[in-house]
Amino acid sequence: MIALSGAHTIGASHCNRFADRLFSSSGVDPSLNRAYAEQIKQACPRNVDPNVVVQLDPTTPNTFDNVYYQNLIDGKGLFKSDEILFTSSASKSTVVEFANNGGEFNAAFGVKTGRAGEIRRDCSAFN
């Protein structure tokens, strides 16, 4: 699952999918990098047009690479499920490994997307 989450190195999300991390009753999710949180709040203010999207990878949004994992270490995981990969002791070491070694990430991801895997057209549903 850690390798498959690396697919978030490309693509975008509608603001309503992560707004709870920005506008909860207790404020901005403290696991978010403050500057990054402000950046996405600019793109996604409260009650924003539901068609507005934000890139999942703010650093290299159009490149399939391991920068997604580097972003997690820097507190720039857009979804809570992304950030948990780094904050959980069960997955943190793998995130660090993938962040430091793009070849390891590519090898692990390739196994999941070959003949044994499926790339979904819509992440919330099977093809």
UniProtKB/TrEMBL annotation:
Plant heme peroxidase family profile domain span: 1-127
Superkingdom of the source species: Eukaryota
Species name: Cucurbita maxima (Pumpkin)
Keyword Metal-binding attached: yes
Keyword annotations of the record: Calcium, Disulfide bond, Heme, Iron, Metal-binding, Oxidoreductase, Peroxidase
Disulfide feature: C15-C44
Enzyme class: oxidoreductase
Cofactor(s) in the UniProt record: heme b; Ca(2+)
InterPro entries linked to this entry: Haem_peroxidase (IPR002016), Haem_peroxidase_sf (IPR010255), Peroxidase_pln (IPR000823)
Protein name per its UniProtKB record: peroxidase
Residues engaged in binding Ca(2+): T9, D57, T60, D65
Keyword Disulfide bond among UniProt keywords: yes
GO molecular function annotations of the record: heme binding; lactoperoxidase activity; metal ion binding
List of residues binding heme b: H8
PROSITE patterns, sorted: PEROXIDASE_4
Purpose: Removal of H(2)O(2), oxidation of toxic reductants, biosynthesis and degradation of lignin, suberization, auxin catabolism, response to environmental stresses such as wounding, pathogen attack and oxidative stress. These functions might be dependent on each isozyme/isoform in each plant tissue.
Catalysis performed (reactions): 2 a phenolic donor + H2O2 = 2 a phenolic radical donor + 2 H2O
Family: Belongs to the peroxidase family.
Gene designation per UniProt: LOC111487061
